[in-house]
Prior knowledge:
The structure holds two protein chains of two kinds. Chain A is mostly helical. In chain A, 59% of the residues lie in helices and 3% in strands. Chain A has one domain (34-167). Chain B has helices at 13-24, 60-66, 124-127, 129-133, 143-157, 182-195, 237-247, 298-307, 399-406, 452-471, 536-555; strands spanning 3-9, 29-32, 93-94, 159-160, 174-175, 202-203, 251-254, 257-265, 270-278, 284-294, 336-341, 347-350, 357-359, 377-385, 411-419, 428-436, 442-447, 475-479, 519-521.
Amino acid sequence: MKRRSLVVAAAGAVAALPLLPPDIQAFTRAVRARMGSGLRTLDPHQHATVARAADLIIPATDTPPASAGNVADFIDTVLSGWYADDDRAAFLTGLTDLDTQARTAFGKDFVDGTPAEQTSLLQGLDDETARWYRSPAKTRGPEPFFHRLKWLTVYGYYSSEAGLVKDQRFEMIPGKYVPCAPADSSATGDF
Amino acid sequence: MKTYDAIVVGSGMTGGWAAKELTEHGLETLVLEAGPMVTPSDYVEHVPPWEKPFRGLGDRKKQLERQPIQKECYACDEWSGKFFVDDIDNPYTQAEGKPFLWLRGRHVAGRSIMWGRQVYRWSDLDFEGNLRDGISIDWPIRYKDIEPWYDHVEEFIGISGEKLGLPQLPDGKFLKPMDLNCGEQMMREVVAKHWGGQRVLTIGRCAVLTENHNGRAACHYCGYCERGCITLSYFNSINATLPAAQKTGKMTLRPDSVVHSLIYDKKKNRVTGVRVIDGTTMHALEFHARVVFLCASALESARLLLNSATPDQPTGLANSSGEVGHNIMDHIMGGGASGRIDAPADRNTVGRRPNGIYMPRFRNLAGGPKSKFLRGYGFQGGAGRDGWWRGTDLPGFGAAWKKQLEQPGDWHMGFSGFGECLPNHDNYLEIDHTRKDKWGIPVIKISVSYSDNERQLMEDSSIAAAEMLAAAGARDISVGTDFSPPGKAIHEMGTCRMGRDAKTSVLNSNNQSWEIPNLFITDGACMTSSACQNPSITYMALTARAANFAVDAMKRNEL
């Protein structure tokens, strides 16, 4: 039931985005035309940017990182086949802005920064996102790019085998229902 | 041309039961299903999200294009979307300003594949409701008439649940109940302490096996029943009733057979068969039988009668009462409340229980205080802990943040009200002659809206739920105020009601047309009131009862 409300929230967020120019389809075709990577929307640089940011959000610990769940590929799939044109455009604009902010902060594209530089930049965006999230829904304005990136990263990772099984200990066929199991030993993964 | 003993239109919740009962009594039965064949090999409950193109988010663009209405059902997702109709091929129209969600499947087993599996008997509080309140018409039956058929159906399909001994919610033939989790147990104690004797929190009574039963295996708690079940652990037609009918050697199941209308012989005053459009070839066909059972769903069965109008019967077949298509009811939802509760932080659940809690109706009981509204509501819901999804809005990122998400989050408890809807002649469907479906059959126009009574009892459900949560010390209580449009509960019913006379009702006490003795309607169309319980078990019991009545009447040459 919780995951379902998450899906509904995703669809709701889509509607809140501002409209962008209608030439985005031509833009997307142009992007696709210069790729041979199997990606449908992201170019290799954008893909690397998303993958790096996702691995900072969900790094390797004693469980796998976001990249083990092919999160950047999942985000390319959502951008290509799920998002409306204006949502896709907003996301791609957000990626461009991320590089602009990176060059201002440390003089390089986001992917070329040191882990410390990248983390510091994302920390600022996360703080801003948290302020946005706490504000009243009616007046808080459009969804920040980082909120969407984080949403897609979380969903993409925990719907992957790496995230759901290895990190969350999800079992497809539990074979039993234990109503009050010790929390530390129980399979916590749900989907 | 061959004349069957019986034709059953529809293979879902009730069609499966009609097929089983009629064939087990030796009748050569043709089951006509509008949609394609489905077998257990079509089940997808163990396909993990990472094997789906959109990882469970669904194919949003395709849904917007082909299933803009069906997607309103939670079960119409990236796995089970294939079990819901294509809205473009299967259109209907809605009266201006009166939205109605007609959520359905068209395939062998129908909605019994995706149903919610909740099973609650009615009591005489429900069967006597209309008479007591002086509204609409009286049911022609009482609990004692249906009780043995509830037993009969429950023993076959297997229901898990807890016996409570409540007059308003009779106990059934239960397998062992599923367990309440820690949060629900805590809530049950709070309810017992503050509302003992009035409100009871119990585990849902559901058509999911907790023990092996009639050759079907106990539940393995994967939790995705609406996607099918290869161990046949929940009840649907292809897991249980249709195989039983098949075993008799008397059933012919014909998928892709869209019934257009009934063939009526005026001289004999009998239906002699049905006109069918073959779903794949689009050819017009006819099939004949001595008795016809409509189990096509409440709205489809009424559509069939209205589309069977003749110059002699311009308002539709079996419709001298003028009630065919009228008195549409559903259950109103959207009331209730949820909040964060202080259940044990060191406890969590293992396995995904395909069932929640139930709180039987506690308003306007016999001898109790009267509310400002008629009838009442039941609560469904449950407790659980937040999981990884809270990460989307949990401030932070990186290793420590990820570690937090490896542990379960807060406990939440939610109550969702399911409210009774009063019968009202002005809630109706009619044929929309301006529009046809993919098979060239005129569609229906639906005109249904809720009244103040439904809204009042839903508002009361939100208050009642919030006060229970408050008594449990819950925080961040949110209260339901956005009530569902008609149809959303997928309990639509009432279009060919049963009654005590031919003037005010379509069917007699045996689900038999008052006018055409060999015509039976046993799906949700037959309902005279809606109660607040999930209705499928009552449809099934009435179907089994009517089928046995029909068999006996045929033996006596009365049909």
